[in-house]
Every structure is written in C-alpha cells, then in structure tokens.
C-alpha cells in the first residue's frame, strides 16, 4: 500500500466570518447589510461555530483528522482601535485548548479577509498606518495565544485581488460596488470605506507584503515555537495562445508573494481549478465542461500543477491549506478528493516537500457574496436547527487520514 510521509497533516479548514456568526464589528457585516449589496444574503448566525466549536472539533477528530485550520477574528479581538477584548482572546484560547484535548493540531490564520469596522473607516489597507496596526494586532494575539498554536499563517490569500483582476467570466457590476462602498461609508460615518476584497490590488500588495514579514517576526517573538507562513490563492494557469501572457500573469499574481513566502517558514497553497489564460484576461472554462457551484471547472489535477509551480519558486515546506469543491453531489466531492490526493502524492514522489493536506471546508458555510448556496463542506449544516450531518465524503477522507494512504488510482483510471 502506498502511503504519505510519516507525520503528514490531514485536516479541514474554516474561516471565522464564514462560520462563527454575528461578526457585527467587521467590515463585511456592514457590506452585507447595505443597499445595494453584492451579497446574495447576510451571514447572520452562520454555523454558530462561535458557540459550537467544541462539538465541531470533536466531530473533526472523530473522522480521523489531525489538524484544524481556523482563523481568529480581528474585529472581535480589537473591536475598537486600541481596545483589545480579553474575553475574545480567552475564547480563542478555549478553541485552541479544545483542539489539543482532541489530539488535533491547530493551524491559526490571523487574517482571513475580514477587518474591524474602524479599520475600514480609516481606508483599510490603503492607509499608511495599516501595516503597523496589523502587526500590533498579531503581536497582541500571539502573546495571548502563542503557547497553544502549532502552525500559523499571517494572511489568507492576500494575492486574491490581483488574481481577480484577470477574471473575465465573473462579472461584478462596477456601479453596484461603488454605491455599496458609498452606503457602507455612510453607515459607519467614514469618508471612505476600505475593504480588502474591494481595494486597489497593487496598493494592497505593496502594503501587505511588508506587513506579512513584520507580522511573521512579531508572532515568532511571542510565546510558543511554531512555524509561521502565508497561504496563497493559486490556479493551474494554462496558456491559450502565447505562453508569454500566462507567464506575465504568474509573475504579477504569484511571484511577489512566493518570494515573501520563501522568507517564511512555509507556504500554504490554496487551489480549486485550472484557468485558461488568453491575451490579457482569463477566458473562462470551455463550453460543455463540468462546472462546480462556483462555476469553476472540475479539475482536481490543478493541485499537482500548482505544487510544481510553487516548488520552482520556494524552497520552504509546503502545506495544502485549502482544496475542495462546491457541489451538492457528494460522489463528485469524493472523486475530487481522490484525484487531488493522487496529484499530491505524485508531487511528493518527485521530491517536492509537501507536508499536509487541509480540505476546504469542514462545514457548509457562508461563501462570501454567494451566500449559503455553494456547498464546500465535508459536513452539512441545517440552517434552521444547526444540526451537523456528516457526509460520505467526510468518512472517505477520514479513512484516508487514519491510514495515511494514497487513494486507489484504479478507481478512476
């Protein structure tokens, strides 16, 4: 039987705003509740994970998984500028303790898209003070939590705004975005509402790369001894026509952040699909191909391709910090997991230092502007009762984790 390396991480991930519920001090909560809004629906209670975390972590462990990746919420920890909530920090200590009580390694993300309202009110990441404020938040949080953390990432997909600039098959109306930001500014009494997901991609990059490196050092200086990395959004970029256009996209979207990751303790790779790159924009999937609920092409092989690209740019260990599929057909999720993990094993066999696979996501959760329709979870959540229902894909994935084995290739050859 072929197996993954000893000590390989098997896990599932969530993000605070998507699962905790009632993140009322965040910028995204504001954007969900203005008119007009891009959000299909508000997050509201989400999965009530803020109160149900202990049961959810026990459930994760019962499946045979050994790692839980989750984010701590800046808007809860520092709900007003210079005012840190000891209650919120103690809450996340309890979450970390619950992981250890269940034999699960916690991987903490310090920033997963959402910011405090006050941070948005000062212009967000485009304000010159943003980096200092983020580093201070990381330092304060790591001082309180660090001795219980096993792995940490500063940012989740900080290169996403650059990646979104290339997308042509998802149309976001500019007028709606402008009016939404204007309404959000009025709602919080700000001149300009600065949100990560809507900011200037180049200004964000120039602010966040140095903030990552400084936050890395601040986190390392706090109690505990654990690796600190950054997780990047990556796609299997495939050229249609001139390869130079694809190469230009990679140089713009990935390479600056991969250079920063190379100065960190590890790189987190987050991959869902491949992308056909045309002259100046992404072309979208070919007609007739299988699509997921996010309109991504069903392409599990993207993960191996992204690992191989990343390995040409960094020499640090790699963890897959997100990989999964939005679908209501759980058999397709099983097939996706199977083929993706075969690709991971192929990459390891070729000498790439991959040390873990963390599935997105643990729960069917709030998927940003798309609301609750996309189903990424290994576990479904009844929106009325909050009942958790384990899917067949979760049991399949857990079985692989418990045996540390590579899926059977013959199942789909």
Task: Explain this structure.
It is a single chain. This protein is of the alpha/beta class. It has one domain: Glycosidases (TIM Barrel, Alpha-Beta Barrel), CATH 3.20.20. It has helices at residues 16-19, 27-32, 49-62, 74-77, 86-101, 117-121, 130-145, 160-164, 174-188, 201-221, 243-253, 255-261, 302-311, 330-349, 392-403; strands at 9-13, 67-71, 105-111, 151-156, 228-239, 266-277, 318-323, 354-360, 379-381, 388-390. The strands form 2 sheets. Strands 1-2-3-4-5-6-7-8 form an 8-stranded parallel beta barrel, surrounded by 7 helices. Strands 9-10 form a two-stranded antiparallel sheet. β9 and β10 form a beta hairpin. α7 (130-145) packs parallel to α10 (201-221). The two termini are 17 Å apart. The mean pLDDT is 96.
Describe the protein's topology:
Blueprint: E1 9-13, H1 16-19, H2 27-32, H3 49-62, E2 67-71, H4 74-77, H5 86-101, E3 105-111, H6 117-121, H7 130-145, E4 151-156, H8 160-164, H9 174-188, H10 201-221, E5 228-239, H11 243-253, H12 255-261, E6 266-277, H13 302-311, E7 318-323, H14 330-349, E8 354-360, E9 379-381, E10 388-390, H15 392-403
Parallel strand pairs: 1-2, 1-8, 2-3, 3-4, 4-5, 5-6, 6-7, 7-8
Antiparallel strand pairs: 9-10
Helix pairs in contact: 7-10, 13-14, 14-15
């Amino acid at each position: 039987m072929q197996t993954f390396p000893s000590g390989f991480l098997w896990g599932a991930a969530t993000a605070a705003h998507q699962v905790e519920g009632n993140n009322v001090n965040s910028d995204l909560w504001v954007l969900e509740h203005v008119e007009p809004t891009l959000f299909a629906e508000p997050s509201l209670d989400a999965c009530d994970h803020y109160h149900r975390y202990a049961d959810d972590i026990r459930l994760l462990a019962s499946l045979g998984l050994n790692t839980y990746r989750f984010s701590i919420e800046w808007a809860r920890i520092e709900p007003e500028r210079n005012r840190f909530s000891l209650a919120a920090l103690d809450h996340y200590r309890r979450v970390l303790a619950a992981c250890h009580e269940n034999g699960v390694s916690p991987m903490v993300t310090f920033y997963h898209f959402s910011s405090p309202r006050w941070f948005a009110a000062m212009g967000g990441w485009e304000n010159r003070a943003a980096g200092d404020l983020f580093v201070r938040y990381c330092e304060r949080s790591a001082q309180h939590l660090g001795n219980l953390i096993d792995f940490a990432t500063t940012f989740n997909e900080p290169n996403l705004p650059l990646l979104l600039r290339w997308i042509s098959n998802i149309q976001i109306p500019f007028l709606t975005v402008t009016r939404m930001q204007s309404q959000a500014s009025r709602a919080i009494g700000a001149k300009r509402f600065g949100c990560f997901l809507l900011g200037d991609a180049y200004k964000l990059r120039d602010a966040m790369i140095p903030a990552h490196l400084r936050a890395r050092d601040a986190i390392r200086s706090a109690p505990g001894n654990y690796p600190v990395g950054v997780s990047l959004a990556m796609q299997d970029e495939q050229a249609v026509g001139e390869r130079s256009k694809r190469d230009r996209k990679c140089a713009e979207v990935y390479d600056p952040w991969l250079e920063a990751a190379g100065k960190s303790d590890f790189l987190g790779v987050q991959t869902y699909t491949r992308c056909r790159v045309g002259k100046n924009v992404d072309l979208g999937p070919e007609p007739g191909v299988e699509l997921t609920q996010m309109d991504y092409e069903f392409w599990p092989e993207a993960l191996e391709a992204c690992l191989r690209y990343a390995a040409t740019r960094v020499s640090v260990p790699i963890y897959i910090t997100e990989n999964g599929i939005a679908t209501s057909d759980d058999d397709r999720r099983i097939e996706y997991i199977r083929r993706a993990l075969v690709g991971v094993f192929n990459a390891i066999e070729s000498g790439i230092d991959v040390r873990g696979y963390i599935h997105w996501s643990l729960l069917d959760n709030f998927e940003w502007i798309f609301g609750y329709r996309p189903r990424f979870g290994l576990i479904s959540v009844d929106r009325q009762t909050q009942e958790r229902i384990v899917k067949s894909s979760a049991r399949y994935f857990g079985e692989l984790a418990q045996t540390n084995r590579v899926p059977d290739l013959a199942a789909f050859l």
